[in-house]
TrEMBL record:
GO terms for molecular function: methyltransferase activity; nucleic acid binding. Keywords: Methyltransferase, Transferase. Pfam families: Cons_hypoth95. InterPro entries: DNA_methylase_N6_adenine_CS, RNA_MeTrfase_RsmD, SAM-dependent_MTases_sf. SUPFAM superfamilies: S-adenosyl-L-methionine-dependent methyltransferases. This is 16S rRNA (Guanine(966)-N(2))-methyltransferase RsmD. It comes from the Bacteria. One of its GO terms (biological process) is rRNA methylation.
Length: 210
């Protein structure tokens, strides 16, 4: 069973599509979010979860303090489950435990979660950023050129300090990084590989004195 690991919705059970998706394991999700919290990349962030499946990555970010989350999933059955999981998270925010994740007034402000039931490329072609944190967890058999296209469409939508996390199979090559996204590191977890990257906005060079 897939559950939210931590935050105001910690332990909330999430529905998972019966087929066609590959949920990120609890071990890998914990590694992702421990690293993100260490770099203070979640609180108040605008998050984009591409190839969302059940929405577990984006909703985990919402539970831990992200302000806005978009779950992009073109499969109708999976998109419907994303909506159900987002609704459950919203209920947890409005009526959950009165813990440290709540405001001083005692009520947690529900994060804004939107589900986009369309292909990743179609969404990115018309999206309005900026996004601070982006997850890409495409099917392992997704063509590398399709992933490269998605990353190229994503690059201009990133905020200056954005973090990008790409989950792939251990036998797939490193993604082709476009201008605007700089790779940082690779982490292996059995058959799963995480590629960490960040926005790489190149500042204009100062003009040379004549």
């Amino acid at each position: 069973m897939t559950r939210i690991i931590a935050g105001f919705a910690g332990s909330l059970a999430l529905q998972v599509p019966r087929s066609g998706t590959r949920p990120t394991s609890d071990r890998v999700r914990e590694a992702i979010f421990s690293a993100l919290e260490a770099r203070d990349a979640i609180e108040g962030a605008a998050v984009l979860d591409l190839y969302a499946g059940s929405g577990a990555l984006g909703l985990e970010a919402a539970s831990r303090g992200a302000a806005d989350v978009v779950l992009v999933e073109k499969a109708k059955a999976a998109a419907d489950i994303c909506r159900k999981n987002a609704d459950a998270l919203g209920r947890a925010a409005r009526g959950g435990a009165r813990g440290a994740s709540h405001t001083a007034a005692g009520a947690h402000r529900p994060p804004r979660v939107k589900v986009a039931a369309q292909s990743v490329a179609a969404y990115l072609e018309h999206a309005v950023g900026p996004f601070d944190l982006v997850f890409l967890d495409p099917p392992y058999d997704l063509d590398e050129s399709a992933l490269a296209r998605d990353l190229a469409l994503l690059a201009p939508l990133l905020s200056p300090d954005a973090v990008v996390v790409v989950e792939r199979g251990s036998r797939t090559p490193e993604p082709v990084w476009p201008d605007g996204i700089a790779p940082e590191r690779r982490r292996d977890y059995g058959e799963t590989v995480l590629w960490w990257a960040s926005a790489d906005a190149q500042p204009a060079r100062p003009s040379q004195p004549e």
